[in-house]
Automatic annotation (TrEMBL):
SUPFAM superfamilies: Putative isomerase YbhE, Quinoprotein alcohol dehydrogenase-like. GO terms for biological process: maturation of SSU-rRNA from tricistronic rRNA transcript (SSU-rRNA, 5.8S rRNA, LSU-rRNA). Residues 788-797 have a biased composition (Acidic residues). This is Quinon protein alcohol dehydrogenase-like superfamily. Residues 577-620, 726-755, 779-824 are annotated as: Disordered. It holds the Pfam family WD40. Keywords: WD repeat. GO terms for cellular component: 90S preribosome; small-subunit processome; t-UTP complex. WD repeats lie at residues 269-301. One of its GO terms (molecular function) is RNA binding. InterPro entries: Quinoprotein_ADH-like_sf (IPR011047), UTP4 (IPR046351), WD40/YVTN_repeat-like_dom_sf (IPR015943), WD40_rpt (IPR001680). Residues 585-602 have a biased composition (Low complexity).
Length: 888
């Protein structure tokens, strides 16, 4: 494989301003129901909101809700309602709703399924600087009881506001109180009890208010600022311990403990050398974490034998810049603190096992890569915000590797052909470009844009003439888009769950080739047996959100997959096939009642010019199992031997299950029956990062993540497990080995190893520099801990077991036996990887030659562009605190 190693594609990731878990903790529950949907929301300075699924330590970024012009997410709050028992004995999980502020006068509720705002609410007040959610009503054993929860907001002009979330609504209720002093800003909020709210201000004061009547119960003063600094102290963060004591972090770098009964200061701890920006406390009140401008994350614990007294245990530098926000979660299999700041990378820190496990730094890059290519034209398409860029890679990578071009030519091997700005205030959600580089589709939350790209002969081969193509979208936008390989179809996903497809017609005219797009057709998804108790509560139908979309190489099969693990496929009916015809495959006996809707949702289904070519659901898809985790890769295999009219679909899940399906027959392929996921290489199963994408080279799949590149050859079986491992077959599945959900365990010999050490440089060792230790992701000790070492017979659920054993593998000798070709390969040389896209070589083989080469077992050449976006190349403000300190 020839690789263009590129960094010219910009992707300006923004700072993390807010993090919040959908549930605070489940410390008293021995087991956590699999139906409880715990999610982490991360808000960024550019208005993006990321939704992460912890997955017991896998940390899968499920969704990115893009921001827009002049938008920012500065605080996030989840409101989870109480569970409801139904008359038939089922439990409807309490709804989880996400709210945000952005230093404006409005509070926004977000629709996770549709990836756009659901409601806005505002009042006659100043910009909101802080936001908090009223605690729920608790019964026996801390069980949540029904009761409306209010939002409390603090403004830049000193107002304390109440917003109601009752009856699934969001509205301004009243102004609860106003600080008496001018130029007072409420910058932090915490709840001592359900009816007592504590607010921190920028004038060295902390106020305690009664929510029922707005009365000021007590005003606490921190005194004057440090000598030579500002006169007033800013109370950046507030938290309350379970027994009622109050914890504050301020601009002097101090963490203060306040008695919850007398509202007097009990203790001051100088935990930081700069402002303390964020705090979290454990569910049992035995640990306090703080983060600040000095990049430190500090841990505090009670002093043994001294009631009410705390001491600083240690501090670390997990971040390379300010630590702006923190959130904690405790439950079975997961006990972590997640922090974020200016360096754009979320950091997962062990909470219950603090000091005993490594931290883990998550990627600052998106899970769904913002990168596509037009291989035949050697174009690379990238996008961020509302801008698209099209690059042209001039020379083949082989010429560069062979030294046929000079160093100067290497830098000039790329050319920026076009920059397209999509009008509107919403950012681009997804984009796609055709294989020949002549059709471009981009979507936002409110619109879909289609462009026709033509090489302009009058201005040279590297000049693009861009024409906009009209498309009927009803101004609903899309969350995902795709173009078929034959460029006759474009597909998009509306509102997260509705699959739409439209026919593209190219016609010659005096001004050149013109593209027209027909009215879209809504494709019907198969019904799934999803409990109504799940759809009515929790995150609702968020799990049915479609995140993966793929066309087959011959453009006759379309497949999508959602977060719940369901796969839907549609088949293109030939022109001479009757509309009620079948394909003769398994599952055709399924009735139309198996479809989600009886109508396609568009009146033009029977009347448009392409009525002879319609897409119909593949009813054999009901035999495809529900995957145990969300799929992160969905792609058809173009280079595998297959029967006429047959297709092979590769699916890789967030937990690194690799499965090959025959979607038309609704069955597993022979390769997947012979090679369960437990046989995958240890380096692949033990890698902590989630797979991002796949590039095909004949039967070889180049699988990549943010820190790795693997090759799997699907024409060869995986090596058999050692005898010791095969004896474990049938044993009960283990929980993951990620410990509390962060990194692996630290050596017993050095349980509190420093995260920063100092090293002498120069001939005399006179100059000392800080050397930050790598986190758990960089250790590559894949044998030490792996979340995917499941010890049952094939790491799959009951449906996959049925598919494996109900259909025996085909007989015959394996042609790959005795072959010297490797069946797998890996490297960690490239990181962090934004994406890898294929390019067509200058000498491209014809279809006949490719087929002959595949029949002979030859591997076709492959050229790709690999784009890296290291975090140290991001533009960040200068640090306010130096690097010359030895951290212990």
């Amino acid at each position: 494989m020839d690789i263009h190693r590129c960094r010219f594609v910009p992707y300006p990731t923004s700072a993390i301003n807010a993090v919040a878990f959908s549930h605070s903790s489940f410390p008293k529950k021995k087991t956590l129901s699999k139906h409880v949907q715990v999610r982490l929301a991360i808000g960024r300075a550019n208005g993006d909101i990321e939704i992460w699924n912890p997955l017991h330590g896998v940390w899968h970024q499920e969704t990115v809700i893009p921001g827009g012009k002049d938008r920012s997410i500065d605080s996030l709050v989840w409101v989870t309602e109480a569970d409801e028992e139904t008359s038939d004995g089922n439990t409807i999980l309490g709804k989880s709703r996400l709210f945000s502020i952005g230093y404006t006068t409005a509070i926004t509720e977000w629709d996770l399924e549709k990836s756009k705002p659901k409601k806005h609410a505002s009042g006659q007040h100043g910009a909101i600087w802080s936001l908090g959610a009223q605690p729920p009503v608790l019964g026996k054993n801390d069980a949540m009881l029904p009761g409306a929860r209010k939002l409390v907001a603090g403004t830049v002009d000193g107002n304390l506001l109440i917003y109601s979330t009752e009856d699934d609504d969001l509205c301004f209720v009243k102004s609860l109180a106003k600080t008496p002093l001018k130029n007072t800003k409420i910058v932090s909020i915490a709840f001592q009890t359900r009816n007592v709210v504590v607010v921190g201000c920028n004038n060295s004061t902390i106020g305690v208010y009664d929510m029922r009547n707005g009365a000021l119960l007590r005003k606490m003063n921190l005194g004057s600022g440090i000598p030579g600094g500002p006169k007033d102290i800013i109370v950046w963060s507030l938290k309350c311990l379970p027994r009622g004591d109050i914890v504050s972090g301020d601009s002097t770098g101090q963490v203060c403990i306040w008695d919850g009964k007398t509202y007097t200061q009990a203790q001051r701890i100088q935990g930081h050398k700069q402002d303390v920006l964020c705090l979290v406390v454990s569910a049992d009140g035995s640990q306090i974490f703080s983060g600040g401008m000095d990049r430190r994350t500090a841990l505090y614990e009670p002093k043994p034998g001294q009631a009410g007294r705390w001491s600083k245990v240690y501090h670390r530098r997990y971040h390379s810049h300010d630590v702006k926000t923190m959130a904690a979660f405790e439950g079975t299999g997961l006990s972590v603190v997640v922090s974020g700041g200016q360096d754009t990378c979320p950091v997962v820190i062990p909470l219950r096992s603090a000091g005993k496990e490594f931290h883990r730094t998550l990627s600052h890059l998106p899970q769904q890569t913002n990168l596509q290519s037009a291989p035949k034209a050697r174009f690379v398409l990238s996008w961020w915000g509302n801008e698209l860029r099209i690059w042209h890679l001039l020379h083949a990578a082989r010429k560069l590797l062979d030294g046929e071009t000079s160093g100067e030519d290497i830098r000039k091997n790329r050319k920026l052909l076009a920059r397209i700005l999509v009008q509107g205030e919403s950012s681009i959600t997804d984009a796609a470009i055709s294989e020949d580089g002549r059709l471009l589709v981009a979507s936002t939350a409110t619109d879909i844009k289609v462009f026709q790209l033509d090489r302009d002969a009058d201005f040279g081969a590297d000049q693009l003439h861009i024409k906009k193509v009209d498309v009927v979208t009803a101004n609903r936008g899309a969350t995902a888009v795709g173009i078929s390989p034959d460029q006759r179809w474009i597909c998009w996903v509306e509102e997260g769950t509705k699959v739409m497809i439209a026919h593209v017609t190219a016609s010659d005219s005096k001004v050149g080739t013109l593209c027209t797009i027909s009215a879209p057709q809504k494709l019907r998804r198969l019904k799934r047996n999803v409990l109504k108790s799940l759809l009515l509560g929790g995150l609702g139908s968020y799990d049915r959100k479609i995140t993966q979309l793929a066309f087959s190489p011959d453009s006759k099969v379309l497949s999508v997959a959602d977060l719940a693990g369901y796969i839907d496929t549609w088949l293109l009916r030939d022109a001479d096939e009757p509309k009620n015809g079948t394909n003769g495959s398994a599952g055709d006996e399924a009735s139309d009642a198996s479809l989600a809707d009886s109508s396609s949702g568009s009146s033009e289904d029977e009347d448009d010019d392409n009525a002879s070519e319609r897409w119909r659901p593949n009813r054999a898809g009901v035999h495809l199992p529900k995957l145990e985790a969300a799929p992160v890769v969905l792609t058809f295999c173009p280079g595998l031997p297959q029967e006429t009219g047959d297709h092979t679909l590769l699916v890789i899940t967030a937990t690194k299950d690799v499965l090959l399906f025959n979607p038309i027959r609704g069955a597993l392929s022979d390769w997947s029956r012979k090679n369960p996921s437990r046989k995958l290489p240890e380096q692949f199963r033990g890698t902590r990062d989630v797979v991002k994408g796949v590039v095909w080279q004949g039967p070889r799949a180049w699988v990549y993540g943010v820190s790795f590149l693997y090759m799997l050859d699907f024409c060869q079986d995986l090596p058999e497990l050692p005898a010791a491992d095969s004896q474990k077959k049938g044993m009960k599945r283990k929980r993951n080995d990620f410990g509390s959900g962060a990194g692996g365990k630290i050596n017993k010999e050095n349980p509190l190893a420093p995260q920063v050490i100092r090293a002498a440089t120069g001939p005399d060792g006179a100059e000392w520099v800080d050397m930050e230790m790598v986190d758990a992701d960089d250790q590559k000790s894949v044998g030490a801990s792996s979340a995917f070492e499941e010890e049952d017979d094939d790491t799959d659920g009951g449906e996959l077991q049925r598919l494996r054993h109900d259909q025996a593998p085909s007989s015959g000798d394996d042609e790959s036996k005795g072959s010297e070709k490797p069946n797998c390969w890996h490297t960690y040389q490239y990181r962090p990887i934004l994406g890898i896209v294929p390019l067509a070589s200058e000498k491209t083989m014809s279809k006949r030659k490719r087929a002959a080469a595949a029949a002979a077992g030859e591997i076709p050449p492959l050229e790709v562009a690999l784009v890296e976006r290291p975090a140290w190349e991001l533009d960040m403000p200068p640090r306010l605190f130096g690097d010359g300190e030895w951290e212990r």
